Amino acid sequence: MDMEKAIIKLTDDAKAAVAALDFSDVSGIQGKIDALMVRFLGKSGELTAVLRGMKDVSSEDKPRMGKLVNDARFMIEGLLKDAGNRAEAAVLDFKLKTEKIDITAPSVMQEKGALHPLTITRNMLVDYFVSMGFSVTDGPEIETDYYNFQALNIPSDHPARDSQDTFFITDNLLLRSQTSAAQVRTMEKVKPPIKMISPGRVYRADEVDATHSPVFHQIEGLVVDKGITLCDLKGILDAFAKHLFGEHTKTRLRPSFFPFTEPSVEVDASCVHCGGKGCKACKGAGWIEILGAGMVNRRVLQVCGIDPDVYSGFAFGMGIDRITNLKFGVTDMRLLFENDVRFLKNFR
């Protein structure tokens, strides 16, 4: 019976302790509830002390005493849980009343970033050619001499290497001087029909000035299928120029030379600044060169395992930096690499 009285006293003390809690003291209420948890239910708490008396209870009374102890535990746990919920609500209510935000106060201006102009141009070019059915491929920037030169019909003694002097890492490895290497890799793995573009960073040993940089960006295009002609190339480039510079834009092809295309052409667009009348930007010519192109050389097709008697194709390549300059009226290529925030803010 002494143990039963101890259990009753324990529950009465727990009720009184919880009832005495001051929930207006939001800063300390949770700590007080935690202290009561330790006092009544902890390893050295009052309930544990009562349980030690079970050894003195007769065998006949132990089931009843055990039930009373468990009921007391559940009751105290419930009291403390309800107190915790009440304390949490009191803290939230206090915060809602005291932590107010003046929505009429002026906000702190947040500087927002934006895409780099080169990225804007690259995305624009990729989106356009993807809409025309081209797939996008990539290639390594550290390339082999074979893919960068030899497979593109530029052997080691070819004079065209002088105009593409690049950075050699070893006798066989170099920083690619053109994204055309990705075309060769694609033709080796994928058999016609092929319709792909490959944008990326390229390197050449050029002196830095307003129109040259040792690091710049290109995008190459390649179409290989049965019956492809120069007319198909002209049609795609006409549509591209109109999309890029406006419906009034005209294009013209001038004979040129590239080892990996035959025939080869330079593609000009009517000046975006004067509409072909002649101005400082086009040096009075009314035309601005935008890219190089041509029909894929038969030898290049053969090297890639494609029969030139069955398939033909065209390729084109342009500098993303040059297109950026023309599109946005940038007069100095160095501005694209200097990361001057005053310049970059114009593209937000």
What report would you give on this structure?
It is a single chain. The protein is an alpha+beta fold. Helices cover 40% and strands 19% of the residues. It is built from eleven helices and nine strands. The chain has helices at 2-19, 29-41, 46-52, 62-98, 117-131, 145-148, 180-189, 230-245, 298-303, 320-328, 341-344, and strands at 135-136, 142-144, 173-175, 194-203, 215-225, 251-258, 261-270, 287-296, 312-319. The protein has a seven-stranded mixed β-sheet with strand order 1-4-5-9-8-7-6, sandwiched between helices. It has a two-stranded antiparallel sheet with strand order 2-3. A hairpin with a 2-residue loop joins strand 6 and strand 7. Helix 2 packs antiparallel against helix 4. It starts with a helix and ends with a helix.
Task: Describe this protein with a few key phrases.
348 residues, alpha+beta, 7-stranded mixed sheet, two-stranded antiparallel ribbon, 9 strands, 40% helix
